[in-house]
Amino acid sequence: LQRIGVLTSGGDSPGMNACIRAVVRKAVYHGLEVMGIKRGFNGFIEGDMVPLHLGSVADIIHRGGTILHTARSVQFLNPEGRARANENVKRFGIQGLVVIGGDGSFRGASIFNREYGLPVVGVPGTIDNDIPGTDQTIGFDTAVNTAVEAINKIRDTATSHERTFVIEVMGRNFGFIALAAGLAGGAETILIPERPFSYDEICERLMRGYRRGKLHSIIVVAEGAAGGLEVARKIKERTGFDTKVTILGHLQRGGTPTAADRILASCLGAKAVELLMAGETRKMVGIKAGKVVALDIEDALSQTRSIDLDMYSLAGILSI
Ligand code: F6P
Predict the structure, then answer these.
(1) Could you give the CA distance from residue 104 to residue 124 in angstroms, rounded to a whole number?
(2) Whose CB has fewer CB within 10 Å in the chain, the N or C terminal residue?
């Protein structure tokens, strides 16, 4: 193995840069060359890649976003797009590929491996924490901390004005960010897609608090469970409470990565290079019970990712 490629794909997440750095430094340490592929699989198809050296990844460990840029490539879904990518694999002499991204990116990488045989390793990078095969994804911890910081600030004004606040967080079809941020932020109610809810139940909880003299309340809603605006409208209709909404949106995707995300990114990025050097062909890396693990991509993606419903119940108990 002489030359590998690295790309970031899908939604960016804090810690992707730390991961690129780990891939490059680990590879160079072992005498490999690294090509940085721009804009996810689009750069692969268009042959938009640059050599990355030790210095190319200096001063990025603490930066959010991704220096390689990212995209959700529609072209790579088509066989023609992948055929063009394969031309570039030959042209640039790429012998292995590290894909930092989410499950969609892993699926694309896996299909490409089956079609053209290029060894690929996926590194889970997404704020959603929704990838099976790993306990945590790169960027999740930072996104949760960002959301908690926002909840803290909203709590100040919610308390002063004795208002109900609905805070909508990201997470796509999963409630990982909502549960973690809601528990850490002391939210009175957490709505996640994994657990059905009813407006009667939510309003009953609010009214119970109100009767006890609790005049403010924070409801964290995962975007996959319901829209924040809709939740607020329904609560207002039923209770008459002055209900405000904050949609945290893309601010959850940016910012300097936490130490936990930088450490995770460093360990997983380095492991990906090790796997390519060991001749592995279609793996993803992850963290399980504190240990770095490697799994077959297809096996991992066939598993279902489940949220800790005991933790969800606990959050309910602690916020009565
Ligand atoms: O997958 C990361 C994520 O931020 C999700 O939480 C969210 O649903 C989606 O991406 C938003 O996508 P976009 O940046 O394309 O609006």
Answers:
(1) 11
(2) C
